[in-house]
Structure formats: C-alpha cells, structure tokens
Amino acid sequence: IQGPIQTDVAIVGAGPTALFAAFECGMLKLSCVLIDALDEIGGQCAALYPEKPIYDIPAHPSIEGGALIAALEAQIAPFDVPRLLGQRVEALSGHRGAFTLKTSAGETVQAKAIIIAAGAGAFGPNRPPLHGLEEYERSGAVQYYVRRRADFEGKRIVVAGGGDSALDWALSLSELADKIYLLHRRARFRGAPETLARIEEQVVAGRIEKIVPYQLHALHGADGRLESVEVADLDGNARHLEADTLLPFYGLSTDLGPIANWNIDTIRSTIPVTPSTLETSLAGVFAIGDIAAYPGKLKLILQGFSEGAMAAHAIHPIVHPDTALHFEYSTSKGVPAAS
Ligand code: FAD
C-alpha cells in the first residue's frame, strides 16, 4: 500500500491561479501538489470557455482560455508538479507546518502549508424541491444536463425554466422527442427574439406545448419510472403532464462544498484573507483566486496570479524557517530546465 504523499505545499484546485502559484512555489524551492475535482487542469478556463478569447492577460492582447492553460502548464513543466485529478479534497486537518488532506479517491496528502485556489467551489444545479426527487435523479428520469442528446429520442419531456438553457434545449430536443412541454412560472420567457420566434414555430407545429404560468408541483410514477409531472398555477389549479423525463434548467449554484467544514472563516462562498499574505483565519492555510476575499478584490485572473506569488512568499518561512528569503528576479535566478 502506498503511503501518504508528502509535500511542502498542497494546492486545492488546478485552475489558472493554482497553476501560477505552483510556478511561484517552484521558484522558491517549495515542492507542491495540485489537486482538482475535475479530470483536467485549467479550472473555469478549460471547463467553461476553452475557445473564448481573454483580453486582459498582461502582454497577451488576446488569448483563448485553453491556450492560456497550455501556456501555464508549459511554465510549470520544469518543476514536475504532481497532479491528483478527478478527486475532490474532502477533509483538512492539522495545523501550520503539519496538515493532512484526504481526497474523495482515498489519497492522503501531508503538507506544511495549504493554498486553497478552489474558485467558486463546487458547481451544482439548482434542484427543484420535489418529494422523491432523488429516486428519479438516480434513474435518469430527472436530469440537469443533456449529456447525450440521442438518449431523448421519442421521449415525452418536461423542460422547466424560462431562460436560455431551457429554450435552447426545448428547441434542440423537439427535433427528436415525442413531445416537449415547456414549463415556466411566468407568462413570458427570457430569450433572444430569434429563439422565441423558433419556439413559436414549434408550438404551431405541435412539437412544443407551452405550459405557463405554471410551477412544478409533484412527480408521479414508481421505482424511478416517471409517469407524469404535476404542475400548478399560482391559484393552485393542477395539471398532470404525461411525461417520462423532467429537465429542470434553474441555473447553477455554487457552494464551497467540503471547504465549509474546514474550520476556516467564510463569507458567502468566499474566504476572507489578510491581503498582504493571503492567509486565511487558519494559520498556514492560504486562499487565492476567485475564492479569496479582501477589500478591493477583483475576480480576475491577473489578480489571482499576483496572489499566488504573495502566498508563496508568505509560505516560505513555514517550510524553511532557518533560511532567509532574499528577493530575486526570475531573470537573475533562472528556471530549471524541464525534465
Ligand atoms: P477556477 O478557475 O474556478 O478553478 C478552481 C478549481 O478548483 C476548479 O477546477 C474546481 O474543480 C477546483 N475545486 C474546487 N473545490 C475543490 C475541492 N474541494 N477539491 C478539489 N478541487 C476543487 N477572468 C479574466 O481575468 N478575464 C476574462 O476575460 C474572463 N472571462 C471569463 C469568461 C467566462 C465565461 C467565465 C465563466 C469566467 C471568466 N473569467 C475571466 C473569470 C476567470 O475564469 C476566473 O477568475 C478564474 O478562472 C479564477 O481562477 P481560480 O484558479 O481562482 O479558480
């Protein structure tokens, strides 16, 4: 059995700010490990907008999210930073100089200091408060993302929500579903005029039926097999829609996930830090990037880069208490050759 992974600094997250913090740690001869719940590095840039240009990265008039991550990966290559991907950090214990992290894949990491670069924390869909919902989620009768469009062929689907996701998926799935009920609690949908016009065409064609203003009220079926969705208007008048699938599109919510239980002060899904060091309320634990909060904070990648540098410098005396850190430029110091 492999023992725990030992490192100077454990970095929770592998988004852009975590990657640059790993570079700064490397320059200060601090070993580190990157841990991310996603299967790939890059955080929001890789997962949400790999092909969207970013215009405010210094010295890059325009760079796509994916290209930025590739460049950051090349920048840390000389330091051979181990990555634990596809696993969430669940638990943090210990104290300044001796922390232990446990991941959802059963890995244990022992570190002298921690950098939390967890962005918005765990993303998750807003779930409707319906009795017995979990059973239908498990069977796939209720889903929040369309992973494989083909799975919806010939289905009778209730698409719930009034925004772009609901409208776009109602249109897209109307091409192969048996029937789409488009449910919204208001009479009007929020969508581009072009989209709304296409919805009306499908209503006329009988492929989409608008159910407005109605809200989800109950799910009926057995053993995870959905038979009908009960909806109610504001006066409580009910309707039963015969359907085998419910797709609620009520947006994404973020929450800190397990980080909220780590005995660190938090405010509304962010972690307050001391601006000069990025240290949290728990000594030896630092927070950078979108998750870090202090007066004047901008949730921008460039600010997260600078926070990574400051946190690494603040961590140096924890790892090397007997070695004074003399500030040096990267040009005088050089970067080791990639192995
Ligand atoms: P993230 O990129 O959010 O990465 C955090 C990582 O931590 C995630 O991969 C997550 O899986 C992981 N994580 C969370 N909790 C755990 C846990 N418990 N265990 C393991 N892993 C965990 N910014 C700009 O500066 N310029 C722009 O032009 C710009 N455009 C944007 C456009 C869009 C569409 C979006 C959505 C954002 C944009 N941003 C832009 C914002 C920018 O992407 C964020 O500021 C940046 O990604 C924050 O980086 P981060 O490293 O702090 O966190």
Please outline what is shown here:
The chain is 24% helix and 28% strand. It is an alpha/beta fold and 339 residues long.
State mean pLDDT (0 to 100 scale): 93
Radius of gyration equals 24 Å
Q: N- to C-terminal separation?
A: 28 Å
**Would you report the number of β strands?**
20
Instruction: Characterize the main sheet.
Output: 7 strands, mixed
The CATH architecture designation of the largest domain is 3-Layer(bba) Sandwich
Summarize the helix and strand pattern as letters: EHEHEEHEEEEEHEHEHEEEEEEEEEHH
Give the number of domains.
2
How many H/I helical runs? 8
Catalytic activity: 2 reduced [2Fe-2S]-[ferredoxin] + NADP(+) + H(+) = 2 oxidized [2Fe-2S]-[ferredoxin] + NADPH
InterPro entries: FAD/NAD-bd_sf (IPR036188), FAD/NAD-binding_dom (IPR023753), Fd--NADP_Rdtase_type_2 (IPR022890), Ferredoxin-NADP_redctase_2 (IPR050097)
Cofactor: FAD
Organism: Kozakia baliensis
Commentary on this structure:
Helices cover 24% and strands 28% of the residues. With 339 residues, it is α/β, with parallel strands linked by helices. The chain folds into two domains: 5-123 and 253-333, FAD/NAD(P)-binding domain (3-Layer(bba) Sandwich); 127-250, 3-Layer(bba) Sandwich (FAD/NAD(P)-binding domain). Strands 1, 2, 5, 6, 7, 8 and 19 form a seven-stranded mixed sheet that branches. A four-stranded parallel sheet has the order 12-11-10-16. β3 and β4 form a beta hairpin. α1 runs parallel beside α3, α1 packs parallel to α7 and α5 (164-174) runs parallel beside α6. The two termini are 28 Å apart. Bound molecules: flavin-adenine dinucleotide (FAD). Flavin-adenine dinucleotide binds at residues 12-18, 35-38, 43-45, 48-49, 54, 56, 88-89, 117-122, 257-259, 289-290, 299-302, 304. The site of flavin-adenine dinucleotide has 36 residues, from α1, β2, α2 and α7.
